From TrEMBL:
Pfam families in the record: SCP2 (PF02036)
Organism: Ketobacter alkanivorans
Protein known as: SCP-2 sterol transfer family protein
Record-annotated SCP2 domain positions: 33-111
Length: 130
Protein backbone atom coordinates (compact mmCIF):
# COMPACT_ATOMS: atom_id res chain seq x y z
CA UNK A 1 0.00 0.00 0.00
CA UNK A 2 1.39 3.37 -0.99
CA UNK A 3 -0.43 6.47 0.23
CA UNK A 4 0.26 10.10 -0.66
CA UNK A 5 2.08 11.87 2.19
CA UNK A 6 -0.35 14.08 4.18
CA UNK A 7 -3.46 12.87 2.33
CA UNK A 8 -6.61 12.04 4.32
CA UNK A 9 -6.01 8.33 3.67
CA UNK A 10 -2.41 8.68 4.87
CA UNK A 11 -3.49 10.35 8.14
CA UNK A 12 -6.11 7.63 8.69
CA UNK A 13 -3.59 4.83 8.15
CA UNK A 14 -0.96 6.51 10.36
CA UNK A 15 -3.54 6.82 13.16
CA UNK A 16 -4.36 3.10 12.77
CA UNK A 17 -0.68 2.14 12.91
CA UNK A 18 -0.13 4.34 15.96
CA UNK A 19 -3.13 2.85 17.77
CA UNK A 20 -1.97 -0.68 16.98
CA UNK A 21 1.54 0.10 18.24
CA UNK A 22 0.27 0.88 21.76
CA UNK A 23 2.66 2.45 24.26
CA UNK A 24 5.70 3.70 22.36
CA UNK A 25 7.87 4.34 25.44
CA UNK A 26 8.60 7.90 24.33
CA UNK A 27 11.83 9.28 25.85
CA UNK A 28 11.19 11.74 28.69
CA UNK A 29 12.72 14.69 26.83
CA UNK A 30 10.34 14.07 23.90
CA UNK A 31 7.24 13.29 25.96
CA UNK A 32 6.09 16.93 26.38
CA UNK A 33 7.51 18.24 23.10
CA UNK A 34 4.80 19.82 20.93
CA UNK A 35 5.62 21.66 17.69
CA UNK A 36 3.09 22.95 15.18
CA UNK A 37 4.11 22.57 11.55
CA UNK A 38 2.61 24.03 8.39
CA UNK A 39 3.64 22.11 5.28
CA UNK A 40 3.23 24.09 2.08
CA UNK A 41 3.31 23.04 -1.55
CA UNK A 42 1.27 19.86 -1.12
CA UNK A 43 -1.37 18.66 -3.57
CA UNK A 44 -3.88 19.60 -0.84
CA UNK A 45 -2.70 23.18 -0.25
CA UNK A 46 -1.06 24.08 3.05
CA UNK A 47 -1.41 21.23 5.57
CA UNK A 48 -1.25 21.85 9.32
CA UNK A 49 0.28 19.08 11.37
CA UNK A 50 1.68 18.79 14.86
CA UNK A 51 4.67 16.88 16.13
CA UNK A 52 3.39 15.70 19.50
CA UNK A 53 5.68 13.51 21.62
CA UNK A 54 7.58 12.59 18.47
CA UNK A 55 4.50 11.59 16.46
CA UNK A 56 2.84 13.43 13.57
CA UNK A 57 -0.80 14.34 14.16
CA UNK A 58 -3.24 16.15 11.90
CA UNK A 59 -3.90 19.81 12.77
CA UNK A 60 -2.23 22.23 15.13
CA UNK A 61 -2.10 21.93 18.92
CA UNK A 62 -3.30 24.96 20.90
CA UNK A 63 -0.48 24.79 23.46
CA UNK A 64 2.48 24.43 21.05
CA UNK A 65 5.12 27.08 21.81
CA UNK A 66 6.81 26.69 18.42
CA UNK A 67 5.68 26.69 14.81
CA UNK A 68 7.69 25.50 11.84
CA UNK A 69 6.83 26.28 8.21
CA UNK A 70 8.45 24.21 5.47
CA UNK A 71 7.87 22.80 1.96
CA UNK A 72 6.43 19.32 1.45
CA UNK A 73 9.57 17.78 -0.05
CA UNK A 74 11.59 18.82 2.99
CA UNK A 75 8.87 17.62 5.38
CA UNK A 76 8.95 14.22 3.66
CA UNK A 77 12.73 14.01 4.02
CA UNK A 78 12.57 14.99 7.71
CA UNK A 79 9.55 13.07 8.97
CA UNK A 80 9.31 10.08 6.63
CA UNK A 81 12.85 9.45 5.38
CA UNK A 82 14.24 10.49 8.80
CA UNK A 83 17.00 12.49 7.11
CA UNK A 84 18.43 14.50 10.02
CA UNK A 85 20.79 16.49 7.80
CA UNK A 86 17.79 17.80 5.82
CA UNK A 87 16.67 19.84 8.83
CA UNK A 88 19.91 21.76 9.17
CA UNK A 89 20.21 22.21 5.40
CA UNK A 90 16.61 23.46 5.20
CA UNK A 91 17.12 25.87 8.06
CA UNK A 92 20.40 27.24 6.73
CA UNK A 93 18.96 27.70 3.22
CA UNK A 94 15.88 29.52 4.52
CA UNK A 95 13.41 26.78 3.50
CA UNK A 96 12.41 26.30 7.14
CA UNK A 97 10.85 29.24 8.96
CA UNK A 98 10.49 29.17 12.75
CA UNK A 99 8.06 31.13 14.91
CA UNK A 100 8.16 31.03 18.71
CA UNK A 101 10.45 29.07 21.02
CA UNK A 102 13.35 27.81 18.93
CA UNK A 103 14.89 25.96 21.90
CA UNK A 104 12.17 23.30 21.48
CA UNK A 105 13.63 22.42 18.07
CA UNK A 106 17.09 22.13 19.57
CA UNK A 107 15.74 19.68 22.13
CA UNK A 108 14.26 17.60 19.33
CA UNK A 109 17.69 17.20 17.69
CA UNK A 110 19.32 15.63 20.74
CA UNK A 111 16.66 13.04 21.60
CA UNK A 112 16.82 9.56 20.16
CA UNK A 113 13.49 7.82 19.52
CA UNK A 114 12.69 4.59 21.36
CA UNK A 115 12.88 1.22 19.60
CA UNK A 116 9.06 1.18 19.44
CA UNK A 117 9.02 4.64 17.82
CA UNK A 118 11.60 3.49 15.26
CA UNK A 119 9.51 0.42 14.43
CA UNK A 120 6.42 2.58 13.92
CA UNK A 121 8.43 5.02 11.80
CA UNK A 122 9.46 2.11 9.57
CA UNK A 123 5.82 1.07 9.14
CA UNK A 124 4.86 4.65 8.22
CA UNK A 125 7.71 4.80 5.69
CA UNK A 126 6.46 1.55 4.12
CA UNK A 127 2.92 2.92 3.52
CA UNK A 128 4.04 6.35 2.31
CA UNK A 129 4.46 7.05 -1.41
CA UNK A 130 7.88 8.38 -2.38
Amino acid sequence: MSLKFLSEDWFTKVAELKAAAGDLEVPAAMHDLVINITVNGTDFGDVDICLNAGMIEKGHHDSAPTKMILPVDLAHRLFIDNDQSAGMQGFMSGQIKIEGDMSKLMAMQTVQPSADQKALQKQILEITAA
